Amino acid sequence: MTTTDDHAQKPPRKDPWELPDVSGLVVGVLGGTGDQGRGLAYRLALAGQEVIIGSRAAERAAGAAAEIGHGVEGADNAECARRSDIVIVAVPWDGHKALLASLREDLAGKLVVDCVNPLGFDKKGAYALTPEEGSAAEQAASLLPDSRVTAAFHHLSAVLLQDPAVESIDTDVLVLGEARADTDLVQALAQRITGMRGVFAGRLRNAHQVESLVANLISVNRRYKAHAGLRVTDV
């Protein structure tokens, strides 16, 4: 029999759109000298986030940071990882495994956001690759057992991100991870960028299809000469 006391003991259900304040966190971008990394660094810094971009060479990172402006700093990958609270991985797929393996200690205890899309290209266009671990995000999780790995920012146009004439990036960001506290932080980070909304999309075991969808978006963009993103309806 259910009593009034039983109901009173249940904590109130959390509002799914009630997200934490991430404005004081330092965000590192590994691969911050590439197009996607530079674009994310620019947008987050424009929103007032403290951003450090990483590269294999500190001098290259510093040069790219100076070009981005808005207070962005540059450092080598290890220093970028150590100094950041949240670390976005935006490196090419072919360098993903080696880089993360080399930064295992530097990324310990960090919230890692993997936005890498394992893709191949041939004369027919882009196609999805399937990593041995299932996805790039799951590979990151296996390489970084002492980090909290999430996946997000896969479907963003680097062209739009880097274009200062574009004031709003109107798209949803699918966020995947194992702990709600972590995915809430990443959703909140996405929503620091004007026009974006972070939407929880499942656990890391579901990351493969999210990463793979980029191949479809590339086909859309080529056919329609666009920079397509995603919107999730009815939420």
Tell me about this structure:
The chain has 235 residues and is of the alpha/beta class. It has one domain (23-224): Rossmann fold (3-Layer(aba) Sandwich). It has helices spanning 4-9, 35-46, 58-68, 77-83, 93-102, 136-143, 158-162, 180-190, 207-224, and strands at residues 26-30, 50-55, 73-76, 86-89, 111-114, 119-122, 125-128, 148-151, 171-177, 196-200. Strand 6 and strand 7 (125-128) form a beta hairpin. It is globular. The protein starts with a helix and ends in an 11-residue tail after the last helix. The mean pLDDT is 95.
List the defining traits of the structure above.
235 residues, alpha/beta, Rossmann fold, eight-stranded mixed sheet, two-stranded antiparallel ribbon, 9 helices, globular
Using the coordinates above, name the CATH class: Alpha Beta
Give the tally of β-strands: 10
Can you count the helices?
A: 9
Q: Give me the CATH architecture, please.
A: 3-Layer(aba) Sandwich
Strand content: 15-25%
- CATH homologous superfamily caption: NAD(P)-binding Rossmann-like Domain
Order of SSEs, N→C?
HEHEHEHEHEEEHEHEHEH
Radius of gyration, in Å, reads: 18 Å
Main sheet summary: 8 strands, mixed
- Give unreliable regions as ranges: none
Q: What value does the average pLDDT take?
A: 95
How would you summarize what this structure contains?
Residues 27-118 form the Pyrroline-5-carboxylate reductase catalytic N-terminal domain. Keywords: Oxidoreductase. This protein has 235 residues and is of the alpha/beta class.
